Amino acid sequence: MAELNQKQNFLKGIIKENPIFVMLLGMCPTLGVTSSAFNGLGMGVATLFVLLMSNIVVSLVKNLIPAKVRIPAFIIIIASFVTIVEMILEAFVPLLYEQLGIFIPLIVVNCIILGRAEAFASKNNVLSSIFDALGMGIGFVLALTILGSVREILGNGSLFGLTLLPETANTFILFILPPGAFIALAYLTVIFNRLTNKTT
Amino acid sequence: MSKKESTFISMALSLLVITLISGFALGFVNDLTIEPKAKAKLERKINAIKLVLPEFDNNPVEARKLVKSEFAKDSIEIYPAYKNNVFVGAAVIGSSEKGFSGLVKIMVGFKPDGTIQNIVVLEQKETPGLGTKMKDESFLQQFRDKNPSTFNLKVKKDGGEVDALTGATISSRAFTEAATLAFDEFLINLDAIITSKQ
Predict the structure, then answer these.
(1) Is B93 helix (H, G, I), strand (E, B) or coil?
(2) Exposed / middle / buried, residue B146 (Cβ in 10 Å: 0-12, 13-18, 19+)
(3) Is any Cβ of chain B less than 8 angstroms from the Cβ of A35?
(4) Domain extent listing, chain B
(5) How confident is the model over A76-133, as pLDDT tens digits?
(6) Is residue A95 part of a domain?
(7) DSSP state, B5?
């Protein structure tokens, strides 16, 4: 039974409660950085790391923090991990660091992370929180990578920087511009919900 | 949810402890990454210098000159290069705030007579797929072996000779403005660079 629960904790973030396609959370980085598949993936992985670490720490200290100051406490924990990610990216993956720019510090206010800390990690044990974070994080990574891929293929004729279409091919430049993010996200959300509703 | 009571002291204490721990953790990670960060930055600069200048045997980063410019608010960086103690060119960092999304920073390599050897884009936040094409060979090649004193560094729309990027005239303008700044500073400081070596 316990094992089944962990599987549910993990899977719900990917399909049933996918943070992007179902819950529509964390829209700011989703729309902002997904102009290419690589950016989407990088942002997703950075968020996954912060989500995992903050879920672990929050579930560890949940009984030590007075209820009235839990939100500031969670934010400090999240902000610390975001700053660590920022420093590590700048040191070891400067290319990605430059591309993501302001969106790395903005992970702090990503509502998925505080949402999971408040709604899940502060009420469950460490193991469940890890599975929850992994599921939600991977759901987020997948959604951002798919969105980034679609926009990059349609808008630039390439995928992960590899050119798929000849230079002369007409691409929809709109899709790498901000309005394209909304259009692509809307269609992907429709397709995603259509597919998942059929199977369940 | 929390078993601890929310008294003034317990709230202040728990926040204090959390901020203390996080402060130490951040300090620790900062110490760990400070060297690789500086190294990565320097490496990018050296690679850019190698790309824009003819062959050299000194260390341009050490020979760097910072000059105050009347056209830009920050000092301009100039990296002179020498081979067998002969001046072979200088890399100048030019920038413009007039890009589509702000700062465009490029490094321009000049031969001693002012001819452009090559240009590398250091920083830009332009629109992906439009303005970012300023990094592409097809755009950059039109500047090579051109001397800005005879080659009008302006986009064709403004009466110059530069083919602007399709759909990104503003980015192209910022690029040419940065290049012009670099060229002007190169000319102004050319004598000082050459004499400083002897």
Answers:
(1) strand
(2) middle
(3) yes
(4) 51-197
(5) 999 999 999 989 888 888 878 877 777 888 888 888 899 888 888 888 888 889 999 9
(6) yes
(7) -
Domain presence at residue A188: no
Residues found in chain A: 200
Structural domain total, chain A: 1
Q: Is residue A174 part of a domain?
A: no
A87–B15: do the CB atoms touch at under 8 Å? no
What is the rounded CA–CA span in Å between residue B132 and residue A156?
A: 11
Dihedral over Cα of B118, B124, B129, B131: its sign: negative
State the ipTM, two decimals.
0.72
Which residues numbered 65-84 in A keep a CB inside 8 Å of some CB on B? 65-70, 72-73, 76-77, 79-80, 83-84
Q: Give me the residue from B6, B19, B29 closest to A67, CB to CB.
A: B6
> A171 lies in a domain?
no
Residue of A nearest to B127 (CA): A177
Residues of B in contact with A91 (CB under 8 A): 33, 36-37, 40
Whole-angstrom CA distances from B2 to A60, A70, A73, A93 are 12, 9, 13, 39
CB contact under 8 A, B129 and A69: no
Q: Which of B43, B35, B122 is nearest to A91 (CA)?
A: B35
Q: Do B130 and B167 touch, CB atoms closer than 8 A?
A: yes
Nearest residue in A to B27, CA atom: A84
Percent helix, strand and coil across chain A, each to the nearest 5: 75, 0, 20
Which residue range forms the structural domain that includes residue A109? Answer: 2-146
Residues of B in contact with A68 (CB under 8 A): 6, 11
Model pLDDT for residues B103-156, shown as the tens digit of each residue: 899 999 998 888 999 999 888 888 766 788 888 888 888 988 888 888 888 888
Tokens of B145: 């072996």
